[in-house]
Every structure is written in structure tokens, then in C-alpha cells.
Amino acid sequence: MKKIAVVILNWNGTKLLEQFLPSVVKYSPEAEIYVADNASTDTSVDFVKANFPTIKIVKNSGNYGFAKGYNEALQHIDAEIYALVNSDIEVTENWLKPILETFENEPKTAIIQPKLLDHKSKEYFEYAGAAGGFLDKYGYPYCRGRIFETIEKDKKQYDDACEISWASGACFFIRSKVYHELKGFDDDFFAHQEEIDLCWRAKNKGHIIKYNPNSVVYHVGGATLQQGNPKKTFLNFRNSLLMLVKNLPKENFYSVLLVRMLLDGVAGVHFLTQGKFSHCLAILKAHWSFYTLFSITYKKRGNFQSKTYYTVKSIVINYYLNNGKVFAK
Fold first, then answer.
1. At how many degrees (to 10) do helices 230-247 and 253-273 cross?
2. Sign of the CA dihedral 135, 138, 139, 142?
3. N or C: which end of the chain has fewer CB within 10 A?
């Protein structure tokens, strides 16, 4: 058994696998490589078998999305470290070594994210995780190198390893024992923000999450579900609320949840003024789905929720009213 397993979740991704698997195979001698397939109907499984015979394939019985897709597949993979890697990630030489060294030297570190750069504009950070993620009081995620739609150029300003609030699911390293201790991702999320929820639960358990700039990968982003897709709006808005219900400390549970729901209404009006009616409808559907899942989700709360889950009170106010367009501000 190799210490680390690189696991690539796939659904009808032949073209992505053709483009990005070669870099993973070339630069990952330390790892056993797996493709976890979500019941693809294209030729992707046959492509992997024919062209990469050393890669192991785990077949899921349905398209379970990101959350359940990984939960199902990882039951069949034996390794100390899981590297969960999107199919649209290009890795670089020695990308695994600094990650393995951190896990080796820091036993309390449970989750790590590498530096995430944009495959289309390689001098810029990539939206999904940039140089590590954080949360504000109301559960809005942002990154060193990316706040809302403002993405910074990589000028080595975030080349320090540091503790973060969440690691991007685009390239997500986690100790297998921690993953299973936390019972993996939340199946109800399907996709989007399940990694933030998992990280939040990990921090509630006392685990440390780190960003390591010495490991660099390039991410296409939006290859499976593009940013302007109303389904992505639905999942992001609904899953944000589910995440808050599971992880907010009881002292400000209702006040924060209410403010966040009101801000969702503001976002819906904003979409209306832009003529993006499908996105406004997606928010309404997200809230309806949230209401139906509320009682089930509330029962998933752990015994302890940290009061120090956020780093700024409102990233929305900082960004739109105080010109805080970059992380340094």
C-alpha cells in the first residue's frame, strides 16, 4: 500500500482525462492513482483502461455528484492520505512532496490545500481556492487571492504556509482516518461547499487545516458546471444555509442565519435588476429545498461548534463599501 492515493472523480470526462491525466501520472510517483467513476455513459472508463493500465478504477453505481461520489469510492481505497483531485487539474513536478512532508512533520494537520492557479491565465490565482479559504461571520467564503469576483495576480504575496479555514475541493488533501472519523462529505450537498462544511466540522474537532504554497497545481474551473449556470446558484445558496445550520455556534445561531437569509433576498433582487431571472428563481428553489432539509440537517450538529470560525465580520461590507477588493485589505 502506498501512503497516498490520488483519487480523480469522473463523470463523462473523456476529454478532461485525455488532457490532464498525463501530468498526474508523470508527476505522482509517490502515489497510487485512482479514477472514481460516477456511472459515466461516455468512453472515459474505456479510455483510462486502454491508455493508463496502472490506474485503478472504482465504479460507482450512479452519478452521485461530488459529495456522495467520493464517499462511495473512498470506501474501496486504502491509503493514509487521500488526494482528491478534480479531473480538470494540471499538476506540476514534485507537487506531492511538500504535502507529504507537512503531514509527516505536523501530526495535528489534517487537511492541506496547495497553491491553486488558473490554467487559462497561469499568472493568476484560480477562483475555487486560490491561496486558501476563509469565512466571514455569515458564512461567505473568500480566499487569499480571490474575494467574490476579484482575482489577484500571483506575485508571490501568498508564498507563506499558513493555517486556513477551508481547503478547496478542487485539490484537497486529507488524512484518511480524519475523513472517516468525520464520515466524509455530507451526501445531501451533492456538490459545492461540501468541502467547506467538512473543513468546518474538522476545525470543530480540533484539527488543523493548512495552505502549502510549495505545491502548485493549475485548475480550469467550471469544467463540469459553469459559473453562470443556475444549478450552481441553487447549490451554492442552499448548501451555504445547510452548512450554517450544522456548524454555527448556538450563541448566534438564529441571528446569523436570519441575516444570511435576508442577504440572500438582496442577492435575488440584484439578479432581478440584471435580468437574470433564472438565478433569482434558483435562490427561491434553494430556500425551499433548505426548509425541507432543515430538521434533518439540524440533527447533524456535533457536540461542539467553535466560536472562532470567522476572520472578518462581513466580507460583503468590506468588499462593496470599504473597497476591500484584495485579501490584504
1. 170
2. negative
3. N
Q: Residue 1, exposed/middle/buried by CB under 10 A (0-12, 13-18, 19+)?
A: exposed
User: How many CB atoms are located within 10 Å of the residue 189 CB?
Assistant: 23
Q: What percent of the chain has pLDDT over 90?
A: 95
Answer for the pair 325, 149: CB distance below 8 angstroms, yes or no. no
Nearest to 235 by CA among 290, 277, 178, 196: 290
pLDDT at 223: 54
- The continuous run of DSSP H or E covering 34 comes out as strand 31-37
Contact 206, 158 (CB under 8 A): no
Q: Is 184 left (phi over 0), alpha (psi -120 to 50) or beta?
A: left
pTM, to two decimals: 0.96
Helical H segments across 8-53, by residue range: 14-26, 44-51
What burial letters (b/e) apply to 273-298, b meaning 16+ CB within 10 Å? eeebeebbbbbebbbebbeebeeebe
Distance CA 156, CA 145 (A): 10
Q: Which of 98-112, 167-181, 227-241, 289-303 has the lowest mean pLDDT?
A: 227-241
- Strand 81-85 to 89-91 pairing: unpaired
> Where residue 200 falls among pLDDT bands split at 50, 70, 90?
very high
| pLDDT tens for each residue of 152-175 | 999 999 999 999 999 999 999 999
323: left (phi over 0), alpha (psi -120 to 50) or beta: left
145: left (phi over 0), alpha (psi -120 to 50) or beta: left
CB contact at 8 A, 69 and 8: no
